[in-house]
Amino acid sequence: MASIRLEHLTKRFGNVVAVDDLNLEIADGEFVALLGPSGCGKTTTLLMIAGIYEPTEGKIYFDDVCVNDVAPKDRYVGLVFQSYALYPHMSVFDNIAFPLRLNKTPRAEIERRVREVAKLAQIENLLDRRPAQLSGGQQQRVALCRALVKEPEVLLLDEPLSNLDARLRIETRAEIKRLQKELGITTILVTHDQIEALSMADRVAVMHQGVLQQYTTPEELYNRPANLFVASFIGDPPMNLFEVRYRRGGELELPGGRALRLPEPLARRLEARRLEEGATLTLGLRPEDVELSETETPEGFPAEVYLAETLGGDLLVHFRLGDGGDGPRLRALTDPERRVTMGQRLWLVPDPNKLHLFGPDGRSLLAEAEEEAPVPHPQRA
Ligand SMILES: Nc1ncnc2c1ncn2[C@@H]1O[C@H](COP(=O)(O)OP(=O)(O)OP(=O)(O)O)[C@@H](O)[C@H]1O
Ligand SMILES: [Mg+2]
């Protein structure tokens, strides 16, 4: 097992900065997800850790030893790719045994280790089959076994579940998480699927355009997104974001002119930032943190129902803000038993303790000044 540290890691392909000055620490035995949209630099990061790509700049440490000049095979990493490419003409046993045969492991040792990992992944009864005789999820587990049989110090998984259907994905997700905890093996999972990252990992590193946006636990990521990018990326249905004006003394002017009174601690925190009167901020409200009221309340603001859709156990109501229903759109999750009709006028009451606020540069205003996040849209020369 090993801890991993990335220091100022950068990878350029010609003019493209695929990974930009990445700093990350992964503890021994930790399960970390690299999460971000397509092209944000996840696979490039993983391949640098595996030793397949050479960093343009920066250093990679395993257990405080720099491995920049260590060959891939001497890094003791197990890799599982999205296209797990099993050998079709070989049995499951031989597929798993392949890396051991390559480095001339004794026969009895191969037998023992293949059976051991197959048992862990619950595919012992499939060892004689060919890959074509397996389901996608079973093939995935064979690929995982092939990576684990080398007893690697670090397990690297690149979108390992994306070929599976929804149900199998949930099953295999749980299976991988259980295996990881059982073996205590330091693991990095690359994914663009937030549910996958948030449900499996101990900590999640969100990336955007090669730049690390936030690195923390799933709960923190959800409850305290550090900037507008993370706020809009994490959460489904996504967070409502709209422009408001700051009023000294702890009020926000909403579209349409109504004021939202901020809870005392939040008002004080904003006061400390010395924002200008009338400064434009972005208010974030998760759909699940908005209550609907039939009657006017001082903490609420008026909106008109635009559309309602049933999502499993919830009703997602789309609103347009403002007295005339001509303001920005906003979504709220509510109980499906509630009857709403198109054009209906309701009052939206945000949970004052669940507000998110972002400054003109896109950074969260709720974080302490010393833990400020990167600006979400990096400027590049
Ligand atoms: N070999 C390469 N040559 C040139 N550019 C590359 C190369 N590999 C990756 N890139 C570029 O680097 C950026 C990051 O690519 P990367 O494959 O790391 O993204 P990713 O986050 O894994 O995306 P996805 O979710 O689509 O797999 C992209 O802009 C990509 O086009
Ligand atoms: Mg990728």
SSE topology:
Layout: E1 4-13, E2 16-26, E3 31-35, H1 42-50, E4 57-62, E5 65-66, E6 77-80, H2 92-102, H3 107-120, H4 136-148, E7 154-158, H5 166-183, E8 186-191, H6 194-200, E9 203-208, E10 211-216, H7 218-223, H8 228-233, E11 240-247, E12 251-253, E13 259-261, H9 264-272, E14 280-285, E15 290-293, E16 301-311, E17 314-321, E18 329-334, E19 345-350, E20 356-358
Helix pairs in contact: 2-3, 2-4, 4-5
Bound molecules: adenosine-5'-triphosphate and magnesium ion.
The site of adenosine-5'-triphosphate has 12 residues, from strand 2 and helix 1.
Question: How would you portray this structure in words?
Answer:
The structure is a single chain. The protein is of the alpha+beta class and 381 residues long. The protein has 2 domains: 4-229, Rossmann fold (3-Layer(aba) Sandwich); 231-371, OB fold (Dihydrolipoamide Acetyltransferase, E2P). The protein is built from 9 helices and 20 strands. It has helices spanning 42-50, 92-102, 107-120, 136-148, 166-183, 194-200, 218-223, 228-233, 264-272; strands spanning 4-13, 16-26, 31-35, 57-62, 65-66, 77-80, 154-158, 186-191, 203-208, 211-216, 240-247, 251-253, 259-261, 280-285, 290-293, 301-311, 314-321, 329-334, 345-350, 356-358. Strands 6-7-8-3-9-10 form a 6-stranded mixed beta sheet, with helices on both faces. It has a 5-stranded antiparallel beta sheet with strand order 13-12-11-14-20. Strands 15-19-16-17-18 form a 5-stranded antiparallel beta sheet, with no helix packed on it. Strand 11 and strand 12 (251-253) form a beta hairpin. Helix 2 (92-102) packs across helix 3 (107-120), helix 2 packs parallel to helix 4 and helix 4 packs parallel to helix 5 (166-183). The model has no long low-confidence stretch (mean pLDDT 91). The chain binds adenosine-5'-triphosphate (ATP) and magnesium ion. The site of adenosine-5'-triphosphate (ATP) has 12 residues, from strand 2 and helix 1.
